[in-house]
Structures are given as C-alpha cells and as structure tokens.
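Friendly challenge for the regulars: who can give me the structure tokens for this chain first? No prize, just bragging rights.
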Amino acid sequence: MMDLQFITIDKWDEVLWEQMEQMYHEAFPSGAKSKGILRSMLDRHIAYLHAGLNQQGKVAAMAVTGVVGKADDKILIIDYLTVGKELRGAGTGTWFLGQIRDWAVQEHSVRGIIIEAEAGTSDVHKERFHFWERNGFILTSYVHQYIWVPEPYQAMLLPLDGTEQPPDDGEALFRYINAFHSKAYRKG
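First reply, four minutes later:
Bragging rights claimed.
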C-alpha cells in the first residue's frame, strides 16, 4: 500500500472538500448529504471530515463521522467512508478505518463504532458487508426502513469496550444513528 497521511478536520476546508467531492458523489450517488448540510455539520461541531492524502497531498480516501452519546456511552458513527477506486482491494480501506478508530478512541474515548449499510443480497452488498466484517464489525439482523429513502439498512457495530455482541438485534443501534441524523439535518 502506498504511504498515506491521515488528517481529521472539524472546520470546513473548501480546498480539501473540492478534492473529496467527486469521490464522495461517485461512492454515494443517492442518499448523500449535500455540501451545505456537511458544511453545517462541521460548523456546528457535530461532524468531522477525515482524509487519507497521498504523497502529492491529493485525497485517496475520505470519511464523514460524528460522535454521539454522553460520557461513558460515546459511539462514533461513520456516516460515509470511501477509498479511491484505484486503491480498493489493496488494504487502504482497512488502514484508513484503523486510523479513524484510533483517532476516535484517543480523542473521544468511544466505546464502539457504528455504520449503517444498505441491506441487500447483491454482490455489491455482500462485498461491503465482507469489508466491514473483515475489520471486526458485527452485522445485526434488524432491518431499518427509513420513510425518506427507498432502501432498507442494517447496523453494524465494532465494539471497542470488550463486549463481543451488540446489545440486541441491532434496533437499539439505530437510536444512535437516528440521533446523529437528527442533529445533522437540524437547522442552526
């Protein structure tokens, strides 16, 4: 794998976003939050942008995350994570996820990381689930149907507090996810 630098920002950086934007929209053609919402999330200190930069300073991987919960119940939500097409399958995603995990533990003392993945049985869905499972995430059985998007989702948890299983079939994890989304779309 090529040598990448990991950075995290909590204030909007237009130049960095311009490098991330095409990768973001290619990876998330539907359901992606608008630039205005992402910027508002950073301005309101409820989200972070992470990047893996190559030796030329260009974005090779990007993610949007947020911390939810209080005190000893903090969870990191990975809202979006993608790696440039040319680097997929080379360990870059695993490296990038490890950097985000280490940052979240050091900076926020999180007890776990949650992602929501589109529920489905296509090869693309299976490939995504396999990536997350290979990196320690546990797929839950609960399938959540949002009213504003057509596709259903399942939560996956990476426990970091020594527990080995999610608290239930995954429905409880959506309380964290929904709290994050609620803050993200709130005005002001």
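The longest helix spans residues 92-108. The radius of gyration is 16 Å. Your move, everyone else.
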